[in-house]
Specification:
alpha/beta, FAD/NAD(P)-binding domain, seven-stranded mixed beta sheet, binds flavin-adenine dinucleotide, 299 residues, elongated, 27% strand
């Protein structure tokens, strides 16, 4: 039996492993995809303290090396459920593992439009985060897809540095706050395209434009863009745990800054928990807090 099983090998889970191993706890990290998590999609990261510029993969490699050097165990498997009790049983698609405590660090997925080549173009013209990637489109033309608060905020931020920002929304109105819509109207380089959906993507390996269809009359137009920011929501990867911890109406794990869930001995860290800022730094901070809380729980 392990002291701590960590579900998810992104920045939150790997930082939790680092802190738990330094506290001499036995640790198993279970990852279903790529160790390093979402950041591995980013070719350029410029806001991790200590790295002026690093690729997401380089950063992830360093983090994985650091955790392996501390002799954390790792397993490639998808966690399907947790059986809660004094001993926690983590059920995966390749067997069951037991621990005294569990840290859920499963992150979130950005909702995609569902278009051909879209996933392959993430990091090659398609982004989800103006704070992270806006600087790469300085003086360039971008499209923001969506009409809620996130899309409006992304567009406002991009308008500061990009030459032209199109905001493409499927409905005939924005669903975000009026205050943000008013702010957007004051930006000379922003053009709003309502009642329009993105039908397909142009470019081979890198995005060069989008094909749009106006919903009212099915008119199809092409728009040349250097980048597309998709802001149509996030999907926290918490479905497997809905029966053991409380999730909020958006599916995020309810917890305070202390990373405690509603189930004793089960902690949560990173993008999958309810919070405002989802970045590498905040995920790492959660990982440290959750690991120390788990160590404290074990005693
Ligand atoms: C294209 C892109 C660019 C970005 N750029 C930046 C940036 O420049 N700066 C910045 O600070 N942030 C950036 N971010 C955001 C940053 O990557 C996330 O905030 C951070 O990775 C969150 O870390 P996490 O560990 O909470 O979750 P994740 O990184 O999502 O890791 C969670 C891991 O859990 C695994 N997992 C999920 N469910 C299961 C399961 N059931 N069983 C086993 N494993 C599971 C997933 O496969 C994943 O690897 C970017 C994100 C993207 C997508």
């Amino acid at each position: 039996m392990y002291d701590i099983i960590i579900i998810g090998g992104g920045p939150a889970g790997l930082t939790a492993a680092l802190y738990a191993r330094r506290a001499n706890k036995t640790v198993l990290v279970i990852e279903k995809g790529t160790f390093g998590g979402q950041i591995t999609f980013s070719p350029k990261v410029e806001n991790i303290p200590g790295f002026a510029l690093v690729t997401g993969n380089e950063f992830a490699e360093k983090l994985v090396e650091q955790v392996l050097a501390l002799e954390a165990e790792v397993e490639c498997a998808e966690v399907l459920s947790i059986k809660d009790g004094e001993v926690k049983t983590v059920v995966t698609d390749s067997g069951e593992f037991q621990a005294k405590t569990v840290i859920i660090a499963t992150g979130a997925k950005h909702r995609l439009l569902g278009l051909e080549k879209e996933e392959a173009m993430v990091g090659n013209g398609i982004s989800f985060c103006a704070v992270c990637d806006g600087a790469f489109y300085e003086g360039k033309t971008v499209a923001v897809i969506g009409g809620g608060n996130s899309a409006l905020q992304e567009a406002l931020l991009l308008a500061e540095t990009s030459k032209k920002v199109y905001v493409v929304q499927n409905l005939d109105f924005f669903t975000g706050e009026d205050k943000l819509v008013e702010q957007l109207k004051t930006k000379a380089n922003v053009e709003v395209i309502l009642g329009t959906v993105v039908e397909s993507l142009l470019g081979e390996d890198e995005l060069t434009g989008i094909v749009m269809r106006r919903v009212s009359d099915n008119e199809v137009t092409e728009l040349a863009v250097d980048g597309m920011f998709v802001a149509i929501g996030l999907i926290p990867q918490n479905e497997a745990f809905a029966d053991v911890i409380t999730l909020n109406e958006m599916g995020y794990a309810d917890s305070g800054e202390d990373c405690l869930t509603t189930a004793p001995g089960i902690f949560v860290a990173g993008d999958c928990r309810s919070k405002r800022i989802r970045q590498v730094t905040t995920a790492a901070a959660d990982g440290a807090i959750a690991a120390l809380a788990a160590c404290n729980y074990i005693g």
